[in-house]
TrEMBL record, chain A:
Residues covered by the DBF4-type domain: 501-550
Gene Ontology terms for molecular function: nucleic acid binding; protein serine/threonine kinase activator activity; zinc ion binding
Residue spans of biased composition, Polar residues class: 17-30, 567-576
GO biological process: positive regulation of nuclear cell cycle DNA replication; regulation of cell cycle phase transition
CDD domains the UniProt entry points to: BRCT
InterPro entries the record matches: BRCT_dom (IPR001357), BRCT_dom_sf (IPR036420), Regulatory_Dfp1/Him1 (IPR013939), Replication_Regulatory_Kinase (IPR051590), Znf_DBF (IPR006572), Znf_DBF_sf (IPR038545)
BRCT domain boundaries: 82-137
Keywords recorded for this protein, A-Z: Metal-binding, Zinc, Zinc-finger
Recorded superkingdom: Eukaryota
Protein name: DBF4-type domain-containing protein
Pfam families reported in the protein's UniProt record: BRCT (PF00533), Dfp1_Him1_M (PF08630), zf-DBF (PF07535)
A Gene Ontology term for the protein's cellular component: Dbf4-dependent protein kinase complex
Automatic annotation (TrEMBL), chain B:
Comp. bias intervals (Basic and acidic residues): 32-41
Biased composition (Acidic residues): 119-134
Ribosomal protein found in the keyword field: no
Superkingdom of origin: Eukaryota
Gene Ontology terms, MF aspect: ATP binding; protein serine/threonine kinase activity
UniProt xrefs under PROSITE patterns: PROTEIN_KINASE_DOM, PROTEIN_KINASE_ST
GO biological process: mitotic DNA damage checkpoint signaling
Any one cellular-component term (Gene Ontology): nucleus
Keyword annotations of the record: ATP-binding, Kinase, Nucleotide-binding, Serine/threonine-protein kinase, Transferase
Biased composition (Polar residues): 1-13
Region (Disordered): 1-61, 107-150, 394-422, 544-569, 643-678
Name under which the protein is recorded: non-specific serine/threonine protein kinase
Length: 576, 707
């Protein structure tokens, strides 16, 4: 307030702006709109942008006076230009109490995004730094104030004085003092902050963004004018703050990772660019006539292949023929054996189990290589376990512990649960983190491709060597080596490895530590201490109490109790 | 005959003593339906495949009860009528299945004399049923078998299982007093499941997990819950949750199972308890077979039965705000002989909650609501359509650029998008892969669509999906670029890719199936081991000792026309319907994916002989016609009901005299306003699973009060 007072002399300019504003609100003529653009803008501008705003205002004022009937389009452009210039210096605050109408939240989010886009800032705390208070509560209170002011000063017609927005502030302060009803608004006004409704904000913002694409393309393609240069600098700024959405997409950025030339890629991003890249992956393109199969899925849909993405090549044909043979043999057998008992031996299912995932084998190991290679900084990947939000951390941790007990060891008892198809709560694999073959060293990539072509065997040395965070712990009944070896065995002699529950490595969610040996861990002091402390199970016990199985006796007793109470009440009411 | 299979197990609602006032209604309704069935021994409304499905006569029962209200009053006490051996049924015993499921839909129960069966006559019952039993070629296991399954395993494994059982029994001492562990059913990621005998089921109050007590004219409900009883011995599944799971995770699972009590075809929590860090959950044991054993052999009616059970389960749990998240064959215990399946393993399940925890990760669709269980696309004014269109255009351009021009931030300072992705690879819906923050039951519906794909194509698994990107790309090459971009936008994502196998329009799911299974329109040979053939009379299955002939023509000669597997045209019609449903289940946009309720009404699954699924829908607690009399205790979170005081044996209607229903209601409200049981109402704390209203019926507590 004290600071505002010295500026009072210039208050008349404000009046102009107010007049304009009211004029606009009353008649939406093009000319009025044009005038409106400069005004609120300087008025709202803080000290920091004064020079800019000033310049803008003057320019607009001149133009405006010169030709009253300028083309609408041009006015719009001017509006955009002025506001766009001023926006980076504005700090918005959204009145938290008011925005409870349906859909407002979405609108507000949208506004925030757009403000960012224009280089403005949204502050979560109300302070002096705020230049604009966004509220829906007081249009009624607000307008009269302004109108009154407008009425008073508009006649002066001292529009040229508008150059300094500071006047406006001083003026408002005075007016505001009269208004005691809305403290937040009082405060805002006493700080000389502009008070906009959400509707107004959105109208301003939308007009600023109305044709940004064309404006941008102009700025990129046509010769750079002074104005575009300005907007360009702002664009760059917003780009630095907000990422890529407004930049020239063909321009390479130093902080970007690009897919390699002539590769195939998939890139999933947040539409609003608020979140980190969702998924990115690159597929190297095999050389023409090379035997390397593409790594991206291709829809073959062959009736005899095991899956839609599996090409029915020679190998697959042999596999299919084998399966057919096995099946007809089974049928024959079934014909001869009287089907009195439930068939215990399940040749088909075992066979399916054994053969059904041949391709998974390749891709699993492939992925493991890829992952291990692409994430030398294993810590980061591990960090995924921690940085997930509350909802998910459970699941993710579970995955860690899930490792130890995952169905990999092939217990057919879980019906239909094929080797490769175990539930994962929140695996850290992929999406959300970015895989890229680029990250592979050339040799490794070469080997990887070779690996696909020549042998399905996992290069063992590799595995030991680069046991990245995505790799199962070494002693695991692995998704890789062991599983592969097992599956490679003749389908007739297939025998699931004996499950050794005791020595499973894994993660204990209770103690939040990894362990090498399940049994050893759960018998260890740390875990035992956790287990013995009922406090750790308080919430769980609460639920368990609700699902406790009542004996019939208890139920009968409860019913009898109720009945006796009822009888008692009956006798009371009779006597009463 | 079959009716005597109703064992003395208390899980059978008929077993609850007739003195139980809550149960008496059930008995009454049951008897009423028996009466009705006598009049209609051979229902002709069986539209399924000409097989003798047990007739469902609900509408008829309704009708009858209206015509002859007196029947309702016929209530001889169960114990007084001893018929011993029933008179032979007046018609062929169609029901050769001794499954424990379809207790109330057996036609031979329609016999008036059997209406009040002597339930103690169980031994005889077993004996008398043996003759029928051999129809099921695969051999129905008796309870003896069930107990001894461990001996079918190799000695090595047996020793291991026995050691585990011993260890479990020692780590949870209270277990062995009530249960006898006999085998291991499976091991999962977070738990192992064992088979056990419930040693004293009759001493326990089993009402909470046995599903709502309804009129017997809703037969599906009974089979939807009770499946644990094998000739008097009650088997349970004991889930041992690994001690390395956090207490919070375990709490979540148990609490969700508690919430899901009363859901149909859903694994019911009997109880759960803890000793130190070891938690075990007890559930009914459901007989089932490995999916790979039967999925290529079962017939259309069985596929429909599978999907009906699954979708009913999903409808019910979704209505309770639960997403299963891990729907797959391994988690659906389907018995191909009886055609009954049970959704199990809620280890990854979560509640649909407004995604406030996910920060700004808001999609262009709403979270699930009651009217839009899969959410709906937001209104246009809720987002900036111009901006979205612009970004979409940019993204589309990006897909055409040279790959070395396309990049992404290397050290991205922006927050990582977080979304629940629990589930199994190959079953994850597009929105899960897109990290949608407002996921709904639609993710389960997608997984169900995947299962239908397995059935139609005859392959399992289909997708490789070694990671989420591969999964996304596999979906992309099927549904095409345009659909993929739409999905991406719906979840506020952009999808750019130059992978050549992604075509603009992709292919339809129908095409996807037909290409891989050109024989999809050829009906499979009947497999007598499986539903619905297990429901056929022995005489109707010509080649009992023969396996299904490999070729259709040899088969059709022998089978009498009514039992012949689908006539080709009929089968073709079914396949067409299945395709149509498939497109609904696998709609890439979650908001447009068919809801379980609508799917059950889809021509493929709608069974005209059954009442509408809405009639059989067990409402979430506190909903339905008597919902206003139900509430949750705010402190203990225990369900409570307000009921008329049950003094002595007077029933509500007697007290009311000639009051009309409306007056009745009025009166109730008055009572409630006055509060307290002095005025004729009282508040009873019940347990989750009790007090569930079904369809338009009130729950068991308010049967007298709201009619």
């Amino acid at each position: 307030m004290a600071a505002a007072l010295p500026r009072r002399p210039l208050a008349e300019r404000t009046s102009f702006s107010h007049e304009q504003c009211s004029a606009i609100s009353q008649n939406s003529v093009g000319s009025a709109k044009r005038a409106r653009s400069p005004e609120p803008h300087p008025a709202k501008a803080t000290k920091r942008i004064r020079p800019l705003a000033q310049a803008a205002t003057t320019a607009v004022a001149e133009e405006g006076k010169g030709r009253k009937k300028v083309e609408r389009e041009q006015q719009k452009a001017e509006f955009r230009e002025k506001y766009t210039k001023a926006f980076p210096s504005w700090v918005f605050y959204f009145d938290p109490d008011i925005l409870d109408v349906a859909n407002t939240e979405a609108l507000r989010q949208d506004m925030k995004r757009k403000i960012h886009l224009l280089g403005g800032r949204v502050d979560d705390f109300f302070s002096k730094d705020i230049t604009h208070l966004i509220t829906d509560q007081v249009p009624g209170t607000e307008l009269p104030l302004y109108n009154k002011e407008n009425v008073g000063k508009s006649k002066n017609g001292t529009s040229s004085l508008l150059k300094s927005p500071i006047k406006l502030r001083g003026r408002i302060v005075e007016d505001v003092l009269m208004d005691t009803e809305y403290s937040l608004i009082n405060k805002a006004q006493s700080f000389g902050q502009k008070i906009w409704t959400l509707t107004k904000l959105s109208s301003v913002v939308d007009r600023c963004l109305a044709t940004p694409s064309t404006g941008q393309s102009q700025s990129l393609t046509t010769s750079v004018s002074a104005t575009t240069q300005q907007s360009l600098s702002r664009l760059l700024q917003s780009e630095r703050l907000n990422g890529t959405c407004e930049r020239d997409p063909s321009e390479r950025r130093h902080d970007f990772r690009y897919f390699s030339k002539d590769s195939y890629f998939v890139l999933v991003e947040d539409l609003h660019q608020e979140f980190a890249t969702i998924a990115a992956h690159e597929y190297p393109v095999p050389k023409p006539h090379s035997a390397t199969k593409p790594l991206w899925p291709i829809l073959h849909c062959h009736p005899h292949a095991r899956g839609p993405f599996i090409e029915f090549d020679e190998k697959e044909r042999r596999r299919w023929e084998k399966t057919q043979q096995a099946e007809s043999a089974k049928e024959k057998q079934a014909l001869h054996v009287p089907r009195t008992g439930r068939p215990r031996a399940r040749p088909t299912s075992l066979h399916l189990q054994a053969t059904g995932h041949g391709d998974l084998r390749r891709s699993v190991s492939m992925n493991n290589i890829r992952r291990r290679a692409s994430h030398p900084n294993g810590v980061l990947r591990d960090a995924n376990l921690v940085d997930l939000d509350a909802d998910e951390y459970d699941n993710d941790l579970a995955y860690a512990s899930g490792y130890l007990a995952s169905g990999i060891s092939g217990h057919a008892a879980a019906s239909g649960n094929s080797v490769g198809l175990t539930s994962t709560a929140g695996t850290t694999s992929t999406t959300g983190t970015v895989r890229n073959a680029l990250q592979l060293t050339a040799t490794l990539r070469g080997r990887l491709q070779q690996h696909v072509v020549t042998s399905k065997k996992f290069p063992n040395g590799e595995r030991e060597g680069s046991n990245g965070p995505m790799a199962p712990p070494d002693g695991m009944p692995g998704r890789t080596t062991q599983a592969m070896l097992r599956k490679s065995r003749s389908t007739n002699t297939i025998k699931l490895p004996r499950r050794d529950e005791g020595s499973k490595p894994g993660y204990c969610e209770s103690c939040r530590i990894k362990f090498d040996d399940f049994r050893k861990h759960v018998k260890g002091t740390k875990h035992k201490r956790f287990a013995a402390n009922d406090d750790n199970f308080l919430q769980l016990d609460f639920v368990l109490a609700r699902v406790k199985r009542c004996t019939d006796e208890e139920v009968r007793k409860a019913e009898a109790d109720r009945e006796s109470r009822w009888r008692a009440s009956q006798s009371v009411s009779y006597s009463g | 005959m079959a009716s005597v299979l109703l064992s003395t197990h208390s899980s059978n609602p008929l077993e609850v003593g007739s003195s139980d006032p809550r149960n008496s209604h059930y008995h009454r309704a049951y008897r009423k339906s028996q009466e009705a069935r006598r009049d209609d021994p051979l229902s002709s409304d069986d539209l399924l495949n000409g097989s003798y499905r047990p007739p469902e006569l609900d509408d008829y029962h309704e009708h009858i009860s209206q015509l002859f209200p007196g029947m309702i009053q016929r209530r001889s006490s169960v114990s007084t009528v001893r018929t011993g051996k029933q008179a032979p049924p007046a018609y062929v015993d169609l029901d050769v299945d001794m499954s424990d499921d379809e207790l109330l839909i057996r036609p031979n129960e329609g016999n008036a004399q059997t209406a009040a069966v002597d339930y103690n006559d169980e031994e005889d019952a077993e004996g008398s049923d043996v003759d029928d039993d051999d129809v099921k070629l695969s051999g129905e296991q008796g309870s003896e078998d069930e107990e001894d399954t461990i001996h079918l395993k190799p000695p090595e494994e047996r020793a291991e299982i026995e050691a585990e059982i011993e260890e479990l029994e020692s780590s949870v001492p209270q277990l062995s007093s009530d249960y006898k562990l006999v085998d291991r059913l499976g091991t999962g990621t977070f738990s192992s499941v064992y088979k056990a005998i419930d040693l004293a089921p009759e001493q326990c109050d089993n009402t909470p997990w046995q599903g709502p007590k309804t009129r017997a004219s809703i037969p599906q409900l009974s089979s939807a819950y009770i499946n644990a009883d094998f000739g008097g011995r009650v088997f349970v599944a004991i889930k041992r949750i690994y001690v390395t799971s956090s207490p919070e995770r375990i709490r979540n699972e148990i609490a969700i199972m508690e919430t899901c009590r009363g859901s149909r075809y859903t694994s019911q929590l009997i109880t759960a308890f803890r000793h130190k860090d070891q938690v075990v959950a007890i559930m009914p044991y459901h007989k089932n077979e490995d999916f790979r054993e039967y999925f290529r052999e079962i017939s259309m009616p069985a596929i429909k039965a599978y999907l009906r059970c699954m979708l009913r389960a999903l409808r019910d749990i979704h209505a309770r705000g639960i997403i299963h998240r891990d729907v797959k064959p391994a988690n659906f215990l389907f018995d191909p002989r009886s055609g009954v399946g049970t959704l199990c393993d809620f280890g990854l399940a979560c509640r649909m909650e407004p995604a406030r925890g996910h920060g700004n990760n808001t999609c262009l669709h709403t979270p699930p609501t009651r009217s839009d269980p899969h959410g709906r696309v937001r209104l246009r004014n809720e987002y900036n359509i111009e901006q979205i269109k612009r970004v979409q255009k940019d993204t589309r351009n990006k897909s055409t650029w040279s790959s070395d021009k396309v990049g992404y931030a290397e050290k991205d300072p922006r927050p990582t998008c977080k979304a629940n992705r629990a589930g199994t690879r190959g079953f994850r819906a597009p929105e899960v892969l897109m990290k949608c923050g407002d996921q709904s039951g639609a993710v389960d519906v997608w997984s169900t669509g995947m299962i239908l794909l397995f059935f139609l194509i005859g392959k399992f698994p289909l997708f490789q999906s070694n990671d989420d990107i591969e999964a996304l790309m596999e979906i992309a090459v099927i549904i095409g670029r345009k659909s993929m971009e739409k999905v991406a936008t719906l979840h506020r994502r952009t999808f750019a890719s130059n992978v050549p196998s992604i075509t603009p329009d992709g292919i339809s799911w129908r095409e996807f199936v037909e290409k891989q299974n050109p024989n999809v329109f050829t009906p499979p040979p009947p497999n007598t081991r499986y539903y619905p053939y297990t429901m056929m009379p022995p005489s109707a299955i010509p080649s009992i000792s023969m396996p299904p002939p490999p070729l259709p023509q040899s088969r059709s000669k022998a089978v009498d026309s009514s039992l012949r597997p689908k006539a080709p045209t009929e089968h073709a019609q079914d396949v067409e319907f299945a395709f149509s449903l498939l497109e609904g289940l696998l709609h890439p946009e979650s908001t447009r994916r068919i809801t379980p309720r609508d799917a059950l009404n889809h021509p493929f699954l709608r069974d005209p002989s059954e009442p509408d699924d809405d009639e059989m829908f067990p409402h979430p607690y506190g909903e339905g016609v008597c919902g206003h009399l139900h509430f949750m205790d705010e402190v203990t979170e225990e369900p409570c009901v307000r009921v008329k005081t049950r003094g002595g044996n007077s029933s509500g209607s007697k007290r009311k005299g000639s009051a009309t229903d409306e007056e009745d209601e009025e009166h109730n409200k008055e009572d409630m306003d006055n509060g307290g049981w002095e005025n004729g109402t009282e508040v009873i704390v019940i347990r989750a699973g009790e007090g569930i209203a079904v369809g338009t019926q009130p729950c068991e507590f308010h049967r007298d009060e709201i009619l």
